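We emphasize that the prediction below concerns an isolated chain of 153 residues; any contacts that depend on oligomerization or on bound cofactors are therefore not represented. The input was used exactly as deposited, without trimming of termini.
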Amino acid sequence: MRFANKFFIAIMVFVASVASASVFAGEYSHSTPGISGYDPVAYFTDGKPMRGSGYHVTVHDGVTYAFTTEEHKKVFEANPQKYLPAYGGYCAYGVAVGKKFLVDPEAWKIVDGVLYLNLDKDIQRKWAKDIPGYIKKAEANWPKIKDKAPGDL
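Result of the prediction step, given as a token string:
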């Protein structure tokens, strides 16, 4: 009888651990930090990139965004499309050449009210030589690559 009770308890612990692991796995997508934890509103209001705080966060389309202040968080929540970076936060130059590159949040530019990020400062200088041309190419490429994994490009 003791063996049966211990076996039953072991089975219950196993089932509980599997169930809780799947709950946490479901939440994993919500822990993806947008713009590497930088405040998207700060680019527009403060004119510079600023790291957000874990005290002021919100989730938008499965991506967690951090903000420097509660006010920035509320401004973002009221109109996220205004503050989201172009191309899902991937490098604007990379999208122009049909790729998805991660970005350096310090390599950025706002053009016509849109936040564009670049891989690094060197790529940003290259992108800056023909911003309208690269944006036009990126706009044409983005619908084709938007739903593809970076490694598949």
